[in-house]
Amino acid sequence: MIKSVLVINTQGKPRLTKFYDILTVEKQQELLRSVFGVLCSRADNVSNFVEAESIFGPDSRLVYKHYATLYFVIVFDSSENELAMLDLIQVFVETLDKCFRNVSELDMVFNYSKLHNILDGIIFGGQVMETSSAEIIRAVEEISKLEAASNSISLVPKTVSGWRSR
Amino acid sequence: MASPSLMDTLFQRGLDDIIKGVRHQQSSTESIFISRVIEEIRREIKSTDLQTKSTALQKLTYLNSIHFIDMSWASFHAIECISSPTFSHKKIGYLAISQSFSESTPVILLISNQLRKDLKSGNEFEVSLALDCLSRIGTVDLCRDLASEVFILMSSSKVFIRKKAIGIVLRLFEKYPDAVRVCFKKLVESLEGSDSPIVSAVVGVFCELSAKDPRSYLPLAPEFYRILVDSKNNWVLIKVLKIFVKLAPLEPRLAKRLVEPICDHMRKTGAKSLVFECIRTVVTSFTEYESAMKLAAAKIREFLMEDDPNLKYLGLHAISIMAPKHLWAVLENKDVVIQSLSDEDPNIKLESLRLVMAMASESNLMETCRVLVNYALKSDPDFCNEILGSILSTCCQNVYEVIIDFDWYVSLLGEMSRIPNCKKGEEIENQLIDIGMRVKDVRPELVRIARDLLIDPALLGNPFLHRLLSAAAWVCGEYVEFSRNPVELMEALLQPRTSLLPSSIRTVYMQSAFKILIFCIHSYFLQKEDMTSEVSDLASKRECSESSDLATGKALVQSDQDEGFNPRESNQSYEYPSAVDTGDGQSSTPTFMEKKSLMHESIVNLLNLMELVLSPLSGSLDVEIQERACNVLGFIELVQQEFSNPLIRKEANLDREEVIASRVVEWVHDGFTEELGPVSVTAQDRVPIPDELVLKENLTDLEAICGGVELPAPGSFSLTSPYYGESAVFSVSNLQAEEDSEPSTESTSLLTEHRKRHELYYLPSEKNKIPANDYPPANDPSSSISTNDATEDLVKLADQSLVSKRKPNHAKPRPVVVKLEEGEAAPVVSKKPELKDDLLSGAIHDILLGNEAKAASSQSNPSDKSSSKRKGKAKHVDLLDSKENLAVGEQPNHENPSSRRSKHRGDGKQKSKKSKGKKNGDGREDDGEKESQKIRDHHGRHKSRQRADAPINVVPQTPDIPDYLL
After folding, report:
1. The pLDDT of residue A92 is above 60
2. What whole-number distance in Å separates Cα of residue B554 and Cα of residue B637?
3. Could you tell me which of A122, A141, B672, B842 has the fewest CB atoms within 10 Å of its CB?
4. Contacts (Cβ under 8 Å, ≥6 apart) of B77
5. Closest CA to B845 of B933, B953, B965, B944
6. Beta bridge partners of A9
């Protein structure tokens, strides 16, 4: 079972947080801080595993990958394979890359909703549901289409940005 | 951003605007900006226009997940959004709900209908949204209400929906175990095929389920085996392996069949994750299969040779799983392990440290520890403490099994505590005391080490070592007879820097100083008995020299004057004991007492020193310190009359007073020399609770009386440490001794009387037990004899329980280590599985094996609970009736709930209630037949197996499963 997926930039700012257990915002913030505290002190060429039981409680493991300015973190328990989780991060990043064409931190910042679509396409309720990025992208695009279609019904966009982009 | 502009009020800002806005803020103004945005959102979210509302909600959800802003207040608005017909609103609403709702959200039940509607929607993405939401926040009620919808979705033609519906079953089973009856069959059917995403989802669900209760899924082993052999999907294979790790210990026959395919995967696959999972499976579950272990070891070796630190780490990790049973695997890779100790990766270092310690044995322990301690000196603080911690834990395993030379180990402990980064004071403390109590032969060395620690003023400044110092102080006080120089110890214990210590440890220092004082005076008296004349000479000398000073007999004046001439005296006395030096610690005791006779001056000096240091402490705010200081001061006053005030004593009086003082000293000394042994952790349990003792009486009345009374600070008492308990007892006896000498004997006799009368409630002092559990007869005049007895007992006991491990090639024989047989008396902790799991496994058991008796237990759940649940249940049954006709077996249960409940009670102890169960069972046999028939029909694949199982299932706890996989 996957407990949490986090994307944090190298300054410690969260770019995506997803907790599959119900936690209060204070607890989430605390966990995020502790995770970042551990990650930022690690050198680049060391292994991608971090002892997580002190942060997330018993039977929890943490793998992360460092891409450019971002840390991608997955927290999980003993029913997942460590290397498979690293692969999963790879799948996630590849999918992002395909969706945004050379994904950068800025894409992550401005595509909050799409980010969640992609992640929900991969992980469902803490379980890995899809690992083929083509399948994920297909679903995400369908969802985007649906959203666009439903939005176009409201003829006058009310938001400033929508208004500008006309 | 001075004030809300016209634009702000006319046009709503979208999420992108907010993100841009936050990015333009300085970190100082960010929170102001955000709170302004929240205000805006609060206004917008109340809008009747769903577009405005959902945009506001989206902004809030974003701020919640990225800036950790509370959004629980918006839960109702989220529900409004999901009821919108527009997909994008729905999506925003669902994301908000799954992010912010919890079981305690009051409006959570309101989403039940909307969820049902969306689960039935024709749009697969709407269904997916609802499923996703349910998987995150599904409560008992939601799961119960929506189980049937999920069940329908499990046969959806769309893979996208089907796999999610399967995934959600996990939540469903967890919250509402009765869902098993509806969904489980479908779940098992979905295992067919081997590479579809469906199988991946089902295997994932079974992996989670079997982690909680593997036994229930044992009958599915053939299915999993087929997947293990057929599947090409690494994700699926990894999950199947995880399932088998759980199942293998339950069914020994599984291993034989599994080893081959697992090794096959290990050889063929290129995926490291799968290889590692195979290795882990083999080294945890199939350790007795030599060839598989060899293959795993070879694969591990490959991992270790890789440059990737991840693989190296996992390789080392796998070896450490093997280490306890297959040490050869560690030894084979010894070079890599040692080398990894200096790796830059902290994970790798830790693993290799663990392995190095696993390799430690009697023969190489000293060398290993020496290398590691040197290494600890050079490494960073964290790892240094990891090293020290692992040395400590390895050495104390099984009552110091690996240690032959305790003198060496004790000095290693001393050395370790001097490492600058050492934070292991507490562990070292425990071991020092433990070794002191268990290993008699090491005490002289132990006292020497403790002395070195005590006199080192640098250690007092490190708060991590305070606990360690308290152990050193205790050791010095308890085993002072092995000390070469008690006076020096006393000075160390009373040095001014002890004020740096926390009060709880200071009290140990004071108590130890008191013990040393008693020891010194006692040996002085002993020696005086031999050489009375000599001492009286000394006394008369003193009389001459100080006659002018001591004119009045009043105690107060005396003490002042004593302090006055203290420095002068100290110069004299300090020089002679330091000359004491004997080679062997053990023989130093008699040497010290015989050759270097304690002079009168030195005793007086000790008394003065103590009085000087402790007088200010008698006014301490800490009760423990204050009490001990008062005890000791009282005692000093008692003895001092005789030592420092010989002038006013008349010759006739001298004998009598001296007798009183020496008797008091004798008693206290006897109390202190009482041997302390290790106490079994189960000792308390062996005391039967007296009949007249009411333990469960309601004490609320007492609260009213004691309400105003404040309890002492918790820090001042520590009842768990063995030596605290002891010192507390002694201080009581001291108090008695100082107040007047008569009652002290009285109290002893009272004690013995009490003991005689309530013999039953005391622990047996003989019967092969160490007398440490006894109430120490501190002032018992005959205790010197009993001490000897006790010591003999101890030695006897030690001889009996000691596993003689003397190695001929060792120069020193291993000293006796006292052990307690704890195994037999250890309370058996039988952890009852959680009710819910019980229900779940019962239900699954029922489905898989057609066990009627177990079914009753899981079905009784709703009837035990509220009636509303009953209703839900009934609805359920109707639905099933029309759909699947599966409820045949359930209906009789509604007719006689009482008998069902009684069956549920006897669930665990089926055998004892067998007769009763039979009566019910007779009537229900038909139903059971019918139901299992049904299942067989639906479940053709397992027909033969289930039929074979049916008769055995009467005893549900031991599902003896016929040979699988054949």
Report:
1. yes
2. 11
3. A141
4. B45, B46, B53, B56, B57
5. B953
6. A70
pLDDT the model gives residue B4: 42
CA B700 to chain CA mean position, Å: 32
Partner-chain contact A124 B88, CB within 8 Å: no
DSSP H or E segment with residue B805: none
Under a CB-based contact definition with an 8 Å cutoff, are residues B580 and B592 in contact?
yes
Beta bridge partners of A67: A70
Top residue of B31, B55, B99 to mutate, by most chain A CBs within 10 Å, is B99
CA-derived radius of gyration, chain A: 17
pTM passes above 0.80: no
CA distances from B250 to A78, B210, B244, B505, B519 (A): 19, 12, 10, 51, 61
Mutate to test the interface with A, among B48, B52, B66 (most CBs of A within 10 A): B66
Neighbours of B741 (CB within 10 A): 18
A129–chain B nearest CA distance, Å: 6
Q: Which two tokens stand for residue B765?
A: 């002092």
ipTM for the assembly? 0.92
Instruction: Assign 3-state DSSP to chain B and report helix, strand, coil percentages, each to 5.
Output: 75, 0, 25
Q: Residue A166 belongs to what H/E stretch?
A: none
Give A-chain residues touching B19 at CB under 8 angstroms: 109-110, 112
Strand A123-124 and strand A14-19: the pairing is unpaired
For residue B259, give the H/E element and its range: helix B252-268
In the block, which residue shows the tokens 């100083």?
A: B513
The answer to whether the CB of A115 falls within 8 A of the CB of A16 is: yes
Residue A34 — very low, low, confident or very high, per pLDDT cuts 50/70/90? very high
Angle at Cα B391 formed by Cα B387 and Cα B395, nearest 5°? 170
Contacts of B505-508 with C-beta under 8 Å, sequence gap 24+, read B505/B466, B505/B467, B505/B469, B505/B470, B505/B473, B506/B622, B506/B625, B507/B622, B507/B624, B507/B625, B507/B628, B507/B727, B508/B470, B508/B473, B508/B474, B508/B723, B508/B724, B508/B727
CA atoms lying within 13 Å on the CB side of residue B805: 15
Q: Where are the beta strands (DSSP E) in chain A?
A: 2-9, 14-19, 49-51, 61-67, 70-76, 123-124, 127-128
What does residue B653 show for φ and ψ, rounded to 5 degrees? -70, -35
Tokens of B545: 């020299």
- DSSP structure string for B329-360: HHHHTHHHHHHHTT-S-HHHHHHHHHHHHHH-
Distance CA A60, CA A79 (A): 10
Per-10-residue mean pLDDT of chain B, 966 residues long, equals 44 86 87 91 89 92 92 92 92 93 88 92 92 91 91 90 92 90 87 81 93 90 92 92 93 89 92 94 90 92 91 92 87 87 87 88 86 86 89 87 88 88 87 88 90 86 86 89 86 86 89 88 80 52 43 37 37 37 39 52 84 86 88 85 56 58 78 73 78 73 65 44 41 42 52 60 46 41 41 42 41 69 46 55 68 42 41 41 41 43 42 43 44 44 41 42 45
Q: How far, in Å, CA of B438 to CA of B399, rounded? A: 9
Measured from the Cβ of residue B554, the count of other Cβ atoms closer than 10 Å reads: 8
Interface of A with B in 32-91 (CB under 8 A): 42-43, 45-51, 78-79, 81-84, 86-87
Please tell me the distance from the alpha carbon of residue B30 to that of residue B36, in angstroms, as a whole number. Answer: 10
What DSSP line would sit under B16-44, residue for residue? Answer: HHHHHHHHHS-TTTHHHHHHHHHHHHHHH
Distance from CA of B171 to the nearest CA of A (A): 9
Chain A residues closer than 8 Å to B16 by CB: 110, 161
3-state secondary structure (DSSP) of residue B422? coil
Across the interface, which of B15, B273, B312 has its CB nearest the CB of A87? B273
